[in-house]
Design goal:
- By secondary structure, this protein is mainly α.
- The longest helix is centred in the middle third of the chain and has 27 residues, at 84-110.
- It has one domain (7-189).
- The chain is globular.
- The termini are far apart.
- A hairpin with a 3-residue loop joins strand 1 (118-121) and strand 2.
- Helix 2 runs parallel beside helix 7 (177-193) and helix 5 crosses helix 7.
- The protein is built from seven helices and two strands; from the N terminus they run αααααββαα.
């Protein structure tokens, strides 16, 4: 029996579009803030993980690539990957990297640092990315945020793809920082109702 398709079943296209657009023009990285803001809003106002379960284009992309296209080994992930200490440890690390990105953006905006037209993969490897931005198009801090945010999104996509190939398609979802944050918000909301 086929599950009825909804418009949001095709949001995996959003994930692909985001990375393709950012590859050619880094300023499109700002669109990724939707992937940060919407899950939190759904959790805050809906008290649920509807976004994660139904609207997350990245999770859908992993399901498509790993499931339908068979790019996943389909093996269970090690239990520590979904353990509370790892999920929240990864969340703290991720937020620290996000905070560092914001600090670098601030430094560029304040004139204390110059714009770095590069993408940092895995928070370590710097890749030149200057073709994706024409200097002077926007204030330097706006471009710096774009490079930093695209780096963060691309790194997390690659981690998710590696997890997808090695284990089950949506293994990333078990330790996704946004998923951990929304889960925490939902738990706090439930406690507030008791």
């Amino acid at each position: 029996m086929n599950k009825q398709k909804h418009w949001y079943d095709y949001l995996w296209l959003w994930s692909i579009a985001f990375f393709v657009l950012g590859f050619f023009n880094i300023l499109f990285a700002w669109l990724g803030m939707l992937d940060f803001g919407l899950p939190l809003l759904f959790a805050l106002f809906g008290g649920n993980k509807f976004f994660c379960n139904n609207l997350c284009g990245r999770g859908q992309l992993f399901s498509l690539l790993g499931g339908r296209f068979g790019l996943s080994r389909g093996k269970p992930a090690p239990r520590w990957l979904s353990s509370k200490w790892f999920r929240y440890g990864f969340l703290v690390f991720f937020l620290a990297m996000f905070g560092n990105m914001l600090f670098q953006t601030y430094l560029v905006g304040a004139g204390a640092s110059s714009l770095r037209e590069s993408i940092k993969l895995f928070w370590t490897f710097r890749l030149p990315w200057d073709w994706a931005y024409t200097a002077g198009t926007v204030p330097a801090w706006v471009a710096q945020f774009s490079f930093g945010f695209y780096s963060l999104m691309l790194t997390s996509l690659l981690i998710g793809l590696i997890a997808m190939v090695l284990f089950r398609p949506r293994t990333w979802c078990s330790f996704c920082p946004m998923g951990s944050m929304t889960q925490g918000i939902c738990k706090l909301k439930r406690l507030g109702k008791d």
